[in-house]
From TrEMBL:
Source organism superkingdom: Bacteria
Any Pfam family the entry gives: Polysacc_deac_1
Domain NodB homology: 251-429
Protein name, as recorded: NodB homology domain-containing protein
Gene3D superfamilies in UniProt: Glycoside hydrolase/deacetylase, SH3 Domains
Record CDD domains: CE4_yadE_5s
Keywords for this protein: Signal
SMART domains to which the protein is assigned, alphabetical: SH3b
């Protein structure tokens, strides 16, 4: 009996080793549901923050409550700093004081205030833990006690990065100080939904639902996002959110397109522009000439791709991102992605060629959703910040920035599934 037990343990250990070193890939561009971790993000880090005293040369104390803003294209109000609460300054100009909320610069209009050298209690721990969503104006206390002073009031409808959990409280860093948010006043942020599209065609032209959505379904989805007042994020903004450097609205999402197909110009572009949405579009630079014969399309005929002129015409809506140059193919014998037949150095060379066509790219969409550690290393080496997979789930701080989940949208998806996903209510068994 002991021998059988020992053999089982050895076999289990061997399987875990193999699985741990197995390349991570998905042969289907249209992903299936994948199991997601049920562990709450607040449980991922158990160590308590170490609070210490630190002297700052410039500490701001307001005489009156003042709004706090973040800078995007415009100033966006994210909260209200309370009077008589000291926060460290990181800069100022003629109109604004600058502090940090989390790792993000935030701005307070100059008014009645004093700035002086002072000592404050600050958390040493600065790493991201996750984010919380506010359903109403939310007080942040100076201590883990609801009878303590309020440091800042957070605005309703935003996602705020937190650095720690302590029993019934989340800790947020404001002006280098630790602020305390009672768990009952916020919800855990499940993450930002990222949508994945390929081909958009009028329903009467469709001959397959593989990697394709009808123009009618796409229009209905985009109208819903507009009616519900969703904000679209770029890959750079998603990266900043994942790093705790950007506060984003609760109703925020990323709309991605893969492959650079001509149909995205003819059908998707006008709809996105109508609603003021933007979208990362991942380009295969070896196919950036639609006059060349593309690979066969499952629905019949050949796929047609965008060219350089198209990219220039659509840069008001699309941010053009990386999708490899010549590695978006499947191996003849293996059926796996061609990338697995190349060294890290060869992948780097391919990505560098890809980036010549999309020099502003900050993200890579893995061809067919397939990737491994050397693909990730190559993406990092050429300066890419985000890696998009075809695994389904939300983009959140639990996972690596190079393993970002997306939700594949085709005509097979119901509108109910779409709405459930973007509203943050999708659950995986």
């Amino acid at each position: 009996m002991k021998k059988i037990y020992s053999c089982v343990l050895v076999l289990a250990s061997l399987l875990l080793f193999i699985m741990g070193n197995e390349a991570k890939w998905n042969l289907n561009e249209v992903p299936l549901f994948h199991e997601q971790s049920a562990t709450a993000f607040a449980e991922t880090r158990q160590s308590k923050p170490f609070i210490t005293e630190k002297e700052f040369e410039q500490v701001l104390t307001l005489t009156n409550d003042q709004p706090i803003y973040m800078k995007q294209e415009n100033l966006i109000r994210i909260g209200e700093l309370q009077a008589n609460q000291a926060v460290a300054l990181i800069g100022e100009d003629e109109e604004y004081y600058e502090i940090r909320v989390g790792k993000m610069p935030a701005f307070i209009r100059k008014g009645q205030a004093k700035v002086e050298k002072n000592v404050m209690k600050v958390p040493v721990h600065n790493e991201r833990l996750g984010a919380v969503k506010t359903a109403q104006q939310t007080p942040v206390y100076t201590e883990a006690n609801r009878k303590s002073d309020v440091l800042i009031q957070l605005r309703k409808g935003y996602r705020y990065p937190v650095i720690q959990e302590e029993k019934d409280w989340y800790l947020i860093k404001v002006g280098e100080r630790a602020g305390y948010i009672h768990k009952s006043t916020v919800k855990m942020d499940e993450g930002v939904p990222v949508l994945l599209y390929h081909q958009v065609l009028p329903r009467k032209q469709m001959k397959t639902e593989m990697s394709t959505i009808s123009l009618e379904s796409f229009e209905k989805q985009m109208a819903y996002l507009a009616d519900e007042q969703f904000t679209t994020l770029t890959s750079q903004q998603l990266y900043d959110y994942l790093e705790g450097r950007l506060i984003v609205p609760e109703k925020a999402l990323v709309i991605t397109f893969d492959d650079g197909l001509l149909s995205s110009k003819e059908y998707a572009y006008p709809v996105l522009k109508q609603y003021g949405f933007t979208s990362p579009q991942h380009i295969i630079s070896a196919r950036i000439d639609r006059e060349k014969d593309g690979p066969a399309f499952d629905g019949g005929g050949l796929l047609k791709y965008l060219n350089v002129e198209d990219l220039n015409e659509m840069k008001d809506v699309f941010q053009f991102e990386a999708h490899t140059c010549a590695l978006h193919e499947l191996g003849v014998e293996s059926g796996a992605g061609l990338v697995f037949e190349h060294t890290e150095e060869e992948i780097i060379e391919d990505l560098q060629t890809n980036l010549q066509h999309v020099p502003s790219a900050v993200s890579i969409a893995y061809p067919y959703g397939q990737y491994n550690e050397q693909f990730i290393a190559a993406a990092k080496e050429v300066g890419l910040l985000i890696g998009y997979t075809t695994v389904e789930g939300y983009a959140n701080m639990e996972l690596s920035n190079y393993e970002v989940n997306r939700f594949g949208m085709t005509e097979k998806r119901s509108f109910k599934d779409f709405a459930t996903y973007v509203d943050g209510d999708m659950r995986w068994p």
